[in-house]
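Tip: read the tokens left to right.
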């Protein structure tokens, strides 16, 4: 169901691939450092909090769609 689409990065043409690879590696190393520093419970709580935020946005979007559909029926 989820399919990643290729996105064009405007900096792709300006920054050499070798430099971009170093940036990606540095980003991953930073993430691993943060994961090692923080307790696993924090990471689990962060994941659950992110899910709750996404569910909240879904609820807001569903409500907006329902409102639009109700107004269309009235027209």
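Filled-in amino acids:
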């Amino acid at each position: 169901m989820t399919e990643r689409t290729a996105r064009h990065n405007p900096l792709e043409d300006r920054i050499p691939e070798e430099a971009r690879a170093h940036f990606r590696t540095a980003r991953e190393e930073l993430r691993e450092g943060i994961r090692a520093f923080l307790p696993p419970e924090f990471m689990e709580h962060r994941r659950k909090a992110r899910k709750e935020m996404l569910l909240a946005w879904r609820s807001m979007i569903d409500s907006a769609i329902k409102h639009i559909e109700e107004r269309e029926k009235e027209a």
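The mean pLDDT is 90. The chain has one domain: 14-74.
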